[in-house]
Amino acid sequence: MDALELLLQRRSIPRLAAPAPSGDVLENIIQAGLRAPDHGALTPWQFVICEGEGLTRLSTILADAAQTNGADEAAIEKARNAPFRAPMVVAVIARTRPHDKVPTIEQHISAGCATQAMQMAAVAQGFQGFWRTGAFAYHPAVRDALSVEGDDQIVGFLYLGTPDCAPANAPKRDASKYVTYL
Boundaries of each Nitroreductase domain copy (predicted)? Predict the structure, then answer.
């Protein structure tokens, strides 16, 4: 698959199974994330890879956050099961720092670009993924458990694995609704 086809055919695959990326494939995914646009060479990212026991720990973190919110048992169980939708979850954190030429929002966007690059690197190597953020990314207990402080943000949870369903057809989007020229 060439780069343009990869970008134009991108889909989120919501059902993922084992195996997860590993070895050189996982290293390529990480390296793709590390190549994200990065104004000021601040490297404002951290990738927390959860698999095996890490998924179990993430499950506990999310369930505890749901319980802290006063969620009912069904919502707590849904939170507890969320990490197991894939054999690997990568929490992508924007690790920001004050810089007179690089505002915090640029650092957050850079971490988002890293997430996209990682997903595309997974697809290019025969794996698939989907990117979720959701309320737990902003929950104080989840932020604390992942050592997210101050202006740092969890920009998403990138679920990775082997496709376990066919991708949906690409949505048809009329570019004229989204593009203007000056």
Answer: 8-161
